[in-house]
User: Fold these one by one.
Assistant:
Number 1:
Amino acid sequence: MRFFLVILLSFFSLTSVRAYAPDHYLGFSASSMGFGGYYKYGFNTPNTFWSRVEMRASWEHFGPTAQDIVLGDDTTFEMDGITYEIGLESDVAGVAFDFYPFRRGSVFHLTFGGYYTNYLFNTHAWIKDTQTFDVGAQTLTVDGRVDAYGEIEWDSPIAPYLGFGLSGTLFSGVTLGFDLGVLYTGSPDINLTYSGTVDNGGTPVDIHTLINEDDIRAQTKEIEDDLMAVEYLPVIRLSLGVRF
């Protein structure tokens, strides 16, 4: 981070700065975090660091309605004999700063900021008949049907963001922007539950008679380890706004 700040200050010291009137922007955005809107403000502080900076406050949401638009009405799929149903809800709001290393009003900018994130990923999987599956160290055989329910949440409500982007004016103050970056959300936490009937030596029994909390914790830990790379979420955003 210190190296990054040095680079920014070097650009600032080597490039002349001219005065800009304050700019205000309102617009809409579509990104990997959802759909929403933003307000952006360009500072009127000539010959200072802030003359190259625009502050952006934004909010984006992804929920059942948007999910149908992106994924279609059917969010159920089958893989290796297991049927999955998925759902995602997210609210992301925060403040970021666009830094223009050459001058404000140019196309290229660097972005840093922080967001409040509320991600909830729901999964429902079920398996039928005589198929086998693992819970922790146990291998169980389905007698009828077994359902597994999972909730995945990320443990860092405040997520730092770092990225870069391109922005420009199309016509009459209408602006178009493209941003690419990464959001650090921390490691995911998983809540996993089961229900259904399994085979116990030829006798159907409730699954909870053969598994215990230690088995579920072991299975949960295995999934969390597989998802460690999801601490960093890539962000792609397209925005359309108007300057006034």
Note: Residues 2-243 form a domain with the Porin fold (CATH 2.40.160.170).
Number 2:
Amino acid sequence: MNPYDEVQIRPVRVEDAEAIWRITGQQGVMETILALPSDRVEQRRQALAELGPDDHWFVAEVHSTVVGLAGLRVGRGRLRHSGHVFLFVGAAHQGRGIGRRLLETLLDLADNWLLLRRVELTVFVTNERAKRLYESLGFEVEGQRKLSVIADGALADEWLMARYR
């Protein structure tokens, strides 16, 4: 049996902090997200403990091991109809449908439980595999954020992408 048939998606818990911290420090993950090499597990624990009612985060587990994280933050006030998502999967588990499962979970929540009309994200312009995943789930490129983030010792561009209902 394929172990990825056994992927479980569940809400994040504070106890997941160390596993998430380990994933964010992996080669093949850190280059594609906004984590820093100096991030500490205590910071992850605190961030998880401080999630509010508009933060909806899920982990993917394979055989009880956390292998990915995705989150949706709902806008406030006049942005209440929209949300911002993020997603990452451990290097050894990429390309196996786990990111898709996590993002589908967030989009189901956005569409059927929160009735969001817009879901947006940013992705490094060099991360073609992620961009293709997002496009396959209905996201469109709205524009390019020039020199928006530091990556590997240089300023890098990001795509701003969104999905509308």
Note: The CA atoms of residues 81 and 116 lie 5 Å apart.
